Amino acid sequence: MKQFRKPVYFAAGYNTVSFGSGRKEFHPKKARPGLEHYIHEAANSVLEQLSDPAVVDEGVIGNFMAARFNRQGNLASLLASVHPALRYKPMVRVEGACGSGGLCLSTAIKTILSETADVVLGLGVEVQNTVKAIYGADILAGAGHYAGERKNGHAYFFPAKFADRAGAYFEKFGEEKTRRAMARWYELAISNARKNPKAQEYHNSVADLNAAGMTRPNPRSFCPNINVFDCSKVSDGASALIVASEAGLKKAGITQSDAVELVGMGVAVEDLTQPPPDQTRMTTVGKAVEQAYATSGLKPEDIGILEVHDCFSIGGLLELEAAGFTPYGTAPDFVLAGNTAPDGRLPTNATGGLIGFGHYTGGTGVRQAVDLIHQLTGKAGDCQVNIDPKRPYGLMVSMGGNDKTVVACIFKKI
Amino acid sequence: MRTLDERLENVAVLGAAGKMGSGIVLLLAQEMAKLKVANPQKSYHLYAVDINEDALDGLVEFIRVQSVKTAEKTCVALRDLYREREDLVENFEIIDQYSLDVMSVLRPATCLSSIKDGLMIFEAIIEDIDIKEKVLSEAKNLCSAETFFFTNTSSIPIQEIDRRVGLDGRIIGFHFYNPPAVQKLAELIPADTTKDELVNISHELGSRLRKIIIPSNDIAGFIGNGHFMRDILHAQSEVERLSKELSTSQAIWAVNRIGQDFLIRPMGIFQLIDYVGIDVCQLIMKVMTKYIKEETLSSELINRMVDKKILGGQNPDGSQKDGFLQYKKNRPVGVFDLDSGKYLTLEENGVDKEIDNYLGALPEGHSPWRALLMDPDRENKLQQYFTHLKNLDTRGGELARAYFIESKRIAEQLVADGVAASPDDVNGVLLNGFYHLYGPVNNFFD
């Protein structure tokens, strides 16, 4: 991939609460806010941070399956409902399963680089609690190949895909240590989320998180190799931000110190109809991150803070390896040694990640970028980690499907 | 000889729309639906017979809703069951199909003649020997000589039913616990005359329905009510004793708390009576008194409540009706005052505070029943708790010890009387049918 033709900035990020089971105010039988609510809350909270909402030139909305979760299509038009200033402006909806948020970012970035816009509103949203988890599993299975693998797939289609990966990894590198690392991953996710009032697990008060993480998998009612604590939950929520050129940032009245600069990006998409070439590797993640390193001229050791797509704890471990932070087969050691903890060498998912914060699928990629903006501008509240001045870079990996549609971005503290 | 699978092609439930009957229908319909999926060339019929036509409408809706819930919970296995069906791809398609298959075996009927082809007849009608005799005799005449009968009686000796109906050993007691689809336990009560083939099929059916089968001897009340009813008698005498220092309603609440809190049971004795139905408890005591010559089981408190037509039990939506206690969202909020005929609100009338003071604090190491239920360290925690209870020098401690010791005595008497084959069987019934955390025969106080 070529170098960017001009600087691109990210700013004015906002996340709604990740709503779902675990939040005290959540009750499955009570009415909940819908798609419109989350889009409006997130978008308006971004617009309020701008000098004038009219500076937004275009909009991109990332969403996975509103057509099934909410019976709603034409989401670009729904984004235009947020504010009168957005009416009649170019808007587009992008979809790449759970990587939709990542595609929202890359699309907004390309819009800035194409020089047809100076300020792009990027928003990712998903409202999934409209159906029970067993039916949600059907909908999310759309991230796999319906014609090729759904019929023979598991009731919990995606958990089972990652259970297969966990099983393969156990076999190759040992179950005992990997299981402990997965439990540690869960423990860190929840302890980070407890510092984040917007996180779905903010109210989690389980005393022994590690013991929960070590729960023996039950293949009869769920999946082999993984337990429910290895999985992200069903979430409702949205995240939004602006992507801007230097001129756009000025027009929006945002100082550079409140923004981060995009220094690297990679987008890699793999054949949906084929099984993973190797269950123990995230090959596509590797390709996308490689591009991001190439465009930025950075290496893994330059990264100061990380956001990975841990829809499942085993996915988090495999991504650490795919992104080059630790050699193949050593992610469990890397995690167990404390490297990914908020005070470790590579603070990872410091606001809870998908398991702790929540995973409103089509919005997660945008949420990751928002959290990196907050971290790199020192506005992450109780979740703030120390950013090593020698490594002022944040990397995020947004993944759709089973390592199929991946976007990686590297941001720099200004 | 017919196999269980063959018999499951034609089944009937009598009293199908009742509390127990509807649960039995659900269990059987689900099992028969699975057979139907595996053997699409065969037909499966479950005759759900009840004299109450409106209640049958409710039954159909109940089975529809519950079959969907079951399918949602067991979708992992159902995907395998329907693997040959290329048209069923997504979970929701499989869940819908399963519910349709369950509904398709169901034949609701108000007329007994519909059961004529039944090879297994489950009886879950009122606990009255005369009515049971009448209905089962009619059923016997309708059905073939190879039909087996399963009675859900919780108290009437099976031998007596067999003798009166003339089934020649084609009947067994298969006592489900309430609600049948949820409770893990079924008491199996063969009469001396019961055919071995029927006993064997009953065990096979029990494991097919994923029930824990505990055999009981054919003595009125069997193990479950044998313990429960005598537990009530102890509660009755304790209320009488406490009524010298407390009002009757306060005493009822105090004794209820002893079971629920001090002995860490899922509910106190008076809440359990309300749950089962006060009139049902009265009926069971009458039956037991009739067949157990040397013992009279009768509770004045129960009789007075039944006289006042306050009967407990559940509303059609499953919520708890008022009985000895008053309920809001299935939680006790008041206690009945037999003198004034009104409920005294626990909080407003200060009953709970007064009784808290009267009983004193719970022993050290106390955890509520629900917390201990899933606790892997339960045994250890219970042992420590009861060690503290053993030495607790309060009114609550004294009452709890008396209750605890009486419960153990009742259990041991059941073994001595030959109702249960062993203390383990009594413990098994209390653990699995009453959801106690520990069996009454234990060494906690040793």
Uncertain parts of chain A = none
Strands side by side in the biggest sheet of chain A: 3-2-4-5-1-6-9-8-7
Number of distinct beta strands of chain A: 9
Number of strands of chain B: 11
Helix content bin of chain B: 40-55%
Strand order, main sheet of chain B: write it out: 3-2-1-4-5-6-7-8
The main sheet of chain B comes to: 8 strands, mixed
Largest interface: A-B, 17 and 15 residues
Could you name the ranges of chain B where pLDDT drops below 50 across 5 or more consecutive residues? none
Structure classification of chain A: alpha/beta
Order of helices and strands of chain B: HEHEHHHEEHEHEEHEHHHHHEEEHHHHH
Shape of chain A: globular
Defining traits:
heterodimer; A: 414 residues; 9-stranded mixed sheet; 15 helices; 35% helix; B: 446 residues; globular
Report on the architecture of this protein.
The complex is a heterodimer of chains A (414) and B (446). Chain A is built from 15 helices and nine strands. Chain A is globular and about 55 Å long. The longest helix of chain A is centred in the middle third of the chain and has 19 residues, at 175-193. In chain A, α4 (100-113) packs across α15. In chain A, strands 3-2-4-5-1-6-9-8-7 form a nine-stranded mixed beta sheet, sandwiched between helices. Chain A has 414 residues and is of the alpha/beta class. Helix content of chain A is 35%, strand content 16%. By secondary structure, chain B is α/β, with parallel strands linked by helices. In chain B, β10 (331-337) and β11 (342-345) form a beta hairpin. The model of chain B has no long low-confidence stretch (mean pLDDT 96). In chain B, α2 crosses α5, α10 packs across α14 (351-359) and α12 packs across α13. Chain B starts with a helix and ends in a 14-residue tail after the last helix. Chain B has helices spanning 4-7, 19-38, 53-73, 75-81, 91-105, 129-142, 158-165, 196-208, 224-242, 248-262, 269-276, 278-291, 300-307, 351-359, 369-373, 378-390, 395-416, 423-432; strands at residues 10-14, 45-49, 106-109, 120-123, 148-151, 171-176, 185-190, 212-215, 325-328, 331-337, 342-345. The chains are: A alpha/beta (414), B alpha/beta (446). The A-B interface holds A 132, 134-135, 137-138, 141, 146, 150-152, 154-156, 219-222 and B 72-79, 83, 86, 89-92, 95.
